[in-house]
């Protein structure tokens, strides 16, 4: 189902943006990436509470591709085991160096592949980093398109 525009799909903690900007500026001129941690709210929205920067494991095309280092992903997953606050991985973030903060066809393919495995509608934050300076992130999620498939929709 296409996300509704009547209310935000998720709530973003004010401390998220500075973490994203710092991590993605350090990664420039390559794509930076990381994990978004949060929980579901009683009204079925996602509350994004933490952002954790990870290493980009993409070694061939790091300037326009990213792959979250599996060791970093495993450490984050292990840190969430047994938490009583309902915290979990709710999404991912990455940068587009010297490009716009909209999902690319590669971003869509990666999100669709993850959805096929996890059956989870994650949040994807993308920040444009122009000449080393990160811009505010845009937030995206998958939803049904008009042809019965899945497509990205802006959630901000």
Beta-strand share of residues: 25-35%
Shape: globular
Helix content bin: 10-25%
CATH classification class: Alpha Beta
SS element count, helices: 3
Mean pLDDT: 91
Radius of gyration of CA atoms, rounded to a whole number: 15 Å
- CATH homologous superfamily label: Cytidine Deaminase, domain 2
Total tally of structural domains? 1
In short:
The protein is of the alpha+beta class. The protein contains three helices and eight strands. Strands 1, 2, 3, 4, 5, 6, 7 and 8 form an eight-stranded mixed β-sheet that branches.
Kindly list the characteristics that best describe this protein.
156 residues, eight-stranded mixed beta sheet, disordered N terminus, Cytidine Deaminase, domain 2, single chain, alpha+beta
Give a written overview of the molecule.
- The protein is built from 3 helices and 8 strands; from the N terminus they run E-H-E-E-H-E-H-E-E-E-E.
- Strands 1, 2, 3, 4, 5, 6, 7 and 8 form an 8-stranded mixed β-sheet that branches.
- With 156 residues, it is of the alpha+beta class.
- It has one domain (10-154): Cytidine Deaminase, domain 2 (3-Layer(aba) Sandwich).
């Amino acid at each position: 189902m296409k996300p509704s525009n009547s209310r935000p799909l998720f709530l973003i903690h004010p401390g998220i943006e500075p973490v994203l900007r710092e991590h993605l500026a350090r990664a420039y001129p390559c794509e930076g990436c990381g994990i978004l941690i949060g929980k579901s709210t009683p009204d079925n929205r996602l509350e994004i509470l933490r952002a954790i920067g990870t290493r980009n494991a993409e070694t061939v095309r790091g300037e326009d591709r990213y792959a979250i280092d599996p060791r970093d992903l495993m450490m984050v997953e292990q840190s969430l085991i047994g938490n009583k606050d309902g915290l979990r991985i709710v999404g991912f973030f990455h940068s587009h160096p010297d490009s716009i903060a909209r999902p690319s066809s590669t971003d869509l393919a990666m999100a669709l592949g993850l959805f096929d495995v996890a059956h989870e509608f994650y949040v994807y934050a993308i920040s444009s980093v122009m000449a080393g300076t990160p811009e505010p992130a845009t937030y995206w999620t998958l939803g049904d398109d008009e042809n019965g498939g899945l497509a990205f929709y802006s959630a901000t």
